[in-house]
């Protein structure tokens, strides 16, 4: 029964990882940009929420009303002013520039908030739980998992049913031709990054409620996000959710074997999947 | 009357190879201009220069009297220039309808049902409506050529550039494509059409332009041009009698 319980907890944890990964998957799919600062942007969102909750005394969930649009605007601005200039056939310049962002964000957070671990206080919901027979499920992890499904479902709908989604897919298919169809690449890329960071904002707030965070916490979040994307298969957003769940389950089962084994178990499962299926489990993109 | 599209002394070279050598010509509103020239004459490069895919070295490109040279490709499309490709370039992961929808929403700046109605109308005119929900990656050549045309039309251009759209088609397919292009002419859009299938070209165009080594070498009435020594030399490989 313990193992079933651990699997369920791992699945719910996977929802958080899927939220980490969704933004990464989105921008890689549309513009082949690998955002090394993604984890730090998740942590930045958590700090933004912390500032909002402390300044006006609202619940972290309410802070989302501010943090999500703020991160979306930041994403659009970063893409239009800096990242668009690095885009081209060479993947290296955006990689280097986002690595630079990562360093800047970590150091700025350290100056602004010190290196002390922080946490978003969400009150009773943090410890509330539901009992389903012998299994007890935390309300918060369940909420995060549901949010992940809703976000990924919404992204999928956006991709296949809206004008913006079709613009994203056209750009992903043939960038140069899309521009000849009147598609303003700089603007569409800006919107993609804005959307990515809006999802990131949500992930950051959930992260901040679930665990404590510090300015250096971004790196491992980036890796978990990457692993979820790669396990699920590039270009498949539902695959990203599956990848997050597989990673989450691997980690909780690993922790069950030995508490020090949690992160390592996730990496080992990731490596095994990479060895057997290098393109991930459900790839849609070459 | 202001030409809808005008090139003035357009210049472009790749190293020692000149693809546009002081090229000047104009296209009247509603006119259909055919472009002839041997392979490597700079015909497709001329389209790339006009659409903004290639930056020009010098000269002017005027759309409705406005110099569009500084504009990026997307803005030129929105201002009224759309093209098709010799080798069809559909968005392979999207349906035929979605391919045209991108042009309607991005190029023609339409939204919602206005964009959908335009796409459905164009797909109907290009005989693609029954296949609207088929992925563009797995189409026959004729269907891909039709999709090129449909997608360009959905950007609601005032000038449409067709690059060897009849090339590689069977006689029968070619005939049905000509009918579609004739229908397109009736909507008032101006056409510049590069084509090696000369009879298809002659069935549609008002005027012919002949290019070689990036230079305009002849321009005028189709009959007169087809009789001219330059064209006979290019297409029949015979030296003109002097």
Automatic annotation (TrEMBL), chain A:
Protein topology in the membrane: Multi-pass membrane protein
GO molecular function, one term: transmembrane transporter activity
Cellular component GO terms, alphabetical: plasma membrane
Keywords assigned by UniProt, alphabetized: Amino-acid transport, Cell membrane, Membrane, Transmembrane, Transmembrane helix, Transport
Transmembrane segments: 12-34, 46-79, 91-109, 130-159, 188-209, 221-247, 259-276
GO BP annotations listed: amino acid transport
Keyword Transmembrane applies: yes
Domain of life, per lineage: Bacteria
Predominant subcellular localization, coarse grouping: membrane
Location relative to the cell: Cell membrane
CDD domains: TM_PBP1_LivH_like (cd06582)
Family membership: Belongs to the binding-protein-dependent transport system permease family. LivHM subfamily.
Name by which UniProt lists this protein: High-affinity branched-chain amino acid transport system permease protein LivH
Lineage of the organism: Bacteria, Pseudomonadati, Pseudomonadota, Alphaproteobacteria, Rhodobacterales
From TrEMBL, chain B:
Entries under InterPro entries matching the protein: AAA+_ATPase (IPR003593), ABC_AA/LPS_Transport (IPR051120), ABC_transporter-like_ATP-bd (IPR003439), BCA_ABC_TP_C (IPR032823), P-loop_NTPase (IPR027417)
Pfam families reported in the protein's UniProt record: ABC_tran (PF00005), BCA_ABC_TP_C (PF12399)
EC annotation from Swiss-Prot or TrEMBL: 3.6.3.-
Source domain of life: Bacteria
GO biological processes: D-alanine transmembrane transport; L-alanine transport; L-isoleucine import across plasma membrane; L-valine import across plasma membrane
Keywords: ATP-binding, Hydrolase, Nucleotide-binding, Transport
SMART domains named among the record's database cross-references: AAA
Cellular component GO terms held in the UniProt record: plasma membrane
Name recorded for this polypeptide: Lipopolysaccharide export system ATP-binding protein LptB
Organism whose genome encodes this protein: Actibacterium lipolyticum
Lineage of producing organism: Bacteria, Pseudomonadati, Pseudomonadota, Alphaproteobacteria, Rhodobacterales
């Amino acid at each position: 029964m313990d193992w079933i319980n651990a699997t369920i907890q791992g699945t719910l944890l996977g929802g958080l990882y899927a939220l980490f990964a969704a933004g990464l998957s989105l921008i890689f799919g549309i513009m082949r940009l690998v955002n090394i600062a993604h984890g730090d942007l998740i942590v930045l969102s958590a700090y933004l929420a912390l500032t909002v909750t402390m300044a006006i005394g609202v619940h972290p969930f309410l802070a989302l009303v501010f943090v999500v649009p703020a991160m979306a605007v930041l994403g659009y601005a970063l893409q239009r002013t800096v990242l668009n200039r690095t885009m081209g056939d060479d993947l290296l310049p955006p990689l280097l520039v986002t690595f630079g962002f990562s360093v800047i964000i970590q150091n700025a957070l350290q100056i602004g908030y010190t290196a002390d671990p922080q946490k978003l206080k969400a009150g009773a919901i943090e410890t509330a739980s539901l009992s389903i027979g012998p299994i007890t499920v935390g309300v918060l992890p369940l909420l995060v998992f549901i949010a992940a499904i809703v976000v990924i479902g919404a992204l999928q709908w956006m991709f296949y049913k809206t004008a913006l989604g079709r613009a994203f897919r056209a750009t992903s298919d043939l960038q140069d031709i899309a521009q000849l169809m009147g598609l303003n690449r700089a603007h569409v890329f800006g919107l993609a990054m804005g959307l990515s960071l809006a999802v990131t904002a949500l992930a950051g707030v959930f992260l901040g409620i679930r665990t404590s965070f510090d300015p250096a916490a971004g790196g491992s979040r980036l890796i978990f996000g990457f692993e979820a994307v790669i396990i699920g298969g590039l270009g498949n957003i539902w695959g990203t959710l599956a990848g997050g769940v597989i990673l989450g389950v691997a980690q909780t089962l690993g922790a069950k074997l030995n508490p020090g084994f949690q992160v390592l178990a996730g990496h080992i499962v990731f490596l095994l999947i990479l060895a057997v299926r290098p393109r991930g489990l459900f790839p849609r993109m070459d | 009357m202001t030409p809808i599209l005008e090139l003035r002394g357009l210049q472009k070279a790749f190293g020692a190879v000149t693809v546009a050598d002081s090229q000047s010509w104009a296209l009247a509103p509603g006119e259909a201009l055919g472009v002839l020239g041997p392979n490597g004459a700079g015909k497709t490069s001329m389209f790339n220069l006009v659409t903004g895919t290639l930056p020009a070295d010098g000269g002017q490109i005027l759309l409705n009297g406005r110099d569009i040279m500084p504009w990026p490709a997307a803005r030129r499309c929105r201002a009224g220039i759309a093209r098709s490709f010799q080798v069809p370039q559909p968005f392979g992961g999207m349906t035929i309808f979605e391919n045209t929808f991108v042009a309607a929403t991005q190029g023609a700046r339409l939204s919602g049902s206005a964009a959908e109605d335009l796409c459905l109308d164009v797909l109907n005119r290009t005989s693609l409506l029954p296949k609207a929900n088929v992925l563009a990656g797995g189409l026959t050549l004729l269907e891909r050529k039709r999709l090129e045309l449909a997608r360009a039309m959905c950007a609601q251009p005032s000038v449409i550039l067709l690059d060897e759209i009849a090339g590689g088609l069977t006689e029968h397919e070619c005939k049905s494509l000509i009918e579609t292009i004739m229908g397109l002419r009736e909507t008032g859009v101006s056409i510049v059409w590069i084509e090696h299938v000369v009879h298809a070209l002659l069935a549609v165009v008002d005027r012919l332009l002949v290019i070689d080594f990036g230079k305009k070498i002849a321009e005028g009435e189709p009959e007169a041009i087809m009789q001219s020594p330059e064209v006979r030399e290019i297409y029949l490989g015979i030296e003109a009698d002097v």
